[in-house]
Design a protein that fits this description.
The protein is α+β, with helices and mostly antiparallel strands and 586 residues long. The chain has three domains: 3-44 and 355-581, Beta-galactosidase, Chain A, domain 5; 49-217, no CATH class; 247-265 and 269-346, no CATH class. Helix content is 36%, strand content 22%. The protein contains 18 helices and 21 strands. The protein has helices at residues 6-12, 15-24, 35-45, 49-61, 66-69, 90-97, 122-130, 134-140, 142-159, 170-182, 184-188, 194-213, 221-236, 244-258, 270-289, 296-311, 330-340, 409-414, and strands at residues 100-103, 106-109, 349-350, 355-360, 363-368, 388-392, 395-399, 424-426, 434-435, 439-440, 446-454, 457-465, 474-481, 487-495, 501-508, 513-516, 522-526, 532-538, 541-549, 557-567, 572-581. Strand 1 and strand 2 (106-109) form a beta hairpin. Helix 6 (90-97) crosses helix 8, helix 14 (244-258) packs parallel to helix 16 (296-311) and helix 15 (270-289) packs across helix 17. The two termini are 40 Å apart.
């Protein structure tokens, strides 16, 4: 682990803290066990009859004869051609021409065994076999790009027809089928040759496989993706058309489970929210083009989710960095919102999803005021409860560290920790227990917030009751933004048994410069536009430390963090801080 992320590394080493709290009593049941057993404990606790059937089905899928069961009547042609509305990246397409396959931060250069290179990360394999890169080749354009795409599709058909754990995983097969059907015209425009015939056969085989998988998947993003692929198959393949009504019914039920009343997604991840939103917009466009009826639930979900996409955006157009989210691509967010045809304004509060938003005079504060999503929906959850981000106009100031876009598991573990967020860490432990396989174990009993407004001033009072799942350990955070937008104040209070160390962290965006003032009690902050702000705090020792920023996908940038550290006495601590615009700043 790089030294610049030492604070997050400390948060991942939990043995000492767990042993101390075990002696203090009141530990959640799963926390009494060593980590491998805790992981097994929580994995078993979330096992359902459906997930157990899915696990058993994988034994069947892996059998020698399973591929034969996928053989059926071969389609003669597509009844409908789905159009891909999202442009690819011609630069990435050019790299594919050169034999450079770069996905998830990992590069394979013209590998001999293209589809199964030795030691390739799982994330890389999933991206390769998902065929999302067809859009990049399509963006290059011309017959050479078409020939390269056909060559790769033919290579996959010849070697990858048998089930494998990653390359035939539900979400990977769904993406592959969606991308194949979305680029059918690019691949086989006017071509009824041997390759097109074999391709149609494999499209039908993968649709049959997904039909078997759909009832075995729990509610979540993966199941929604599979339903989308099956709807595409129902629109395009004559043999699947009779099942289209069934998939529409499943789609409406899944939307009901995943999209909250305020429009947020059950995962509480802005990145997942945007991905689901984009897939729903895709589906509506395909149904309209096919002159099929658009379900009311689909239209309503798009109308509710669009304002929440705007809710999550900073002034620079990028996304806020909560729960496995990076800034994203501004232009793509704009395009999807335009295609959505939903003009709702961002709300101030998203109480069902658990976020708060204050926007006053170009100053924007976004706060995570919700708990960990339920098991099954917590795969993207971070231990960042009560963290906040602050931007002024198009310039970010206080941020969370973001999400690692590559396959390095130490970075992925570190960016989930409480220390990687602009909030309070207690005794170098996380506010929720982070387990391998993107699971969350012990968690707070309650996370919530109350919002008040008066004369243009806004207060948000947030609370974590049961930090890290331990009773009697409470963190309360109050944020106040003045009506002029130039005065943000905070108050952190801790209560719980015993003497505990704490650190209040304020991660700074890489474009921000910061320096300790001569008085040693304040920090001068300069934004990218030259605007000056001053940070002051009482109740702890203020200092500047190294940090990293992972908010731009594929990049790891050095940054700094303001840290106010101290120790609770008799189980109580109080830190007050303020970030104010300096007089000579606009």
């Amino acid at each position: 682990m790089p030294t610049t992320f030492g604070a997050c590394e400390e948060a991942t080493d939990r043995a000492r803290a767990i042993e101390r709290d075990r002696r203090g009593g009141g530990v959640a049941p799963g926390m009494r066990l060593p980590q491998p057993f805790r992981t097994a404990y929580f994995r078993l606790a979330r096992t359902t009859p459906r997930s157990a059937l899915h696990a058993m089905a994988k034994l069947w899928f892996n059998g020698l004869f399973y591929r034969r069961t996928l053989v059926g009547r071969r389609p003669r042609q597509l009844e409908f051609t789905v159009q891909n509305p999202w442009p690819g990246d011609a630069k990435l397409g050019a790299e594919l021409f050169r034999g450079e396959f770069c996905f998830a931060g990992h590069v394979e250069t013209a590998p001999g065994a293209l589809w199964r290179p030795r030691d390739a990360p799982e994330e890389w394999l999933a991206a390769l076999h998902g065929f999302g890169w067809l859009a990049d080749l399509h963006a290059v354009g011309g017959e050479a790009a078409r020939a390269r795409a056909r060559e790769l599709v033919e290579s996959w058909i010849e070697t990858e027809g048998r089930w494998r754990p990653v390359t035939w995983r539900a979400d990977v097969v769904a993406r592959r089928l969606i991308n194949w059907l979305s680029h059918a015209e690019f691949l086989f425009a006017g071509d009824e040759g041997k390759l097109a015939t074999r391709w149609l056969d494999h499209v039908a085989r993968q649709a049959r496989h997904l039909r078997r998988l759909a009832p075995l998947l729990g509610s979540g993003f993966e199941r929604l993706l599979v339903i989308k692929a099956l709807i595409y198959a129902g629109l395009c393949l004559p043999s699947e058309a009779r099942r289209l009504a069934r998939w529409m019914t499943l789609l409406s039920a899944e939307i009901e489970r995943q999209v909250a009343a305020d429009g947020g997604h059950v995962s509480r991840s802005p990145a997942v929210h945007f991905a689901v939103f984009r897939h729903l917009v895709d589906l509506r466009m395909a149904l309209r083009e096919a002159r099929a009826e658009v379900p009311v639930a689909l239209q309503n979900a798009i109308d509710r989710m669009a304002p929440m996409v705007r809710f999550y955006r900073h002034g620079d157009g990028g996304m806020c960095l909560f729960n496995d989210t990076n800034e994203g691509e501004n232009w793509l967010i704009d395009v999807v919102l335009t295609q959505a045809e939903a003009r709702g304004k961002p709300p101030d509060s998203a109480p069902h999803t658990g976020f708060e938003r204050i926007s006053i005079n170009r100053t924007l504060v976004l706060m995570d005021a919700g708990g960990i999503p339920p098991p099954g929906a917590d795969g993207h959850a971070h231990a960042g409860a009560l963290s906040f981000e602050l931007s002024v106009g198009k310039h970010r100031m206080i941020v969370n560290c973001g999400a690692h876009a590559g396959a390095q598991r130490d970075w992925r573990a570190a960016q989930r920790t409480t220390a990687a967020h602009s909030t309070v860490t207690i005794d170098d432990i996380n506010s929720a227990e982070l387990l391998p396989a993107a699971m969350v174990g012990a968690r707070p009993r309650l996370v919530g917030a109350v919002r008040r407004e008066s004369d243009g001033n806004v207060w948000i009072d947030g609370e974590i009751d049961g930090y890290a799942g331990f009773p009697r350990l409470v963190h309360r955070r109050r944020l106040y933004l003045a009506a002029n937008g130039g005065d943000l104040r905070g108050e952190e209070s801790l209560s719980g048994a015993g003497r505990r160390k704490f650190a209040v962290r304020f991660h700074l965006h890489p474009t921000v410069t910061a320096s300790l003032a001569q008085d040693g009690d304040s920090v001068l902050i300069r934004l990218g536009d030259g605007g000056g702000w001053r940070f002051r705090a009482s109740g702890g020792v203020t200092g500047l430390q190294e940090s990293v920023y992972l908010g731009i996908g594929g990049e790891t940038r050095r940054s700094e963090q303001i840290v106010v550290s101290g120790a609770a006495h008799d189980g109580e601590a109080l830190v007050k801080w303020a970030i104010t615009r300096m007089a000579d700043s606009s």
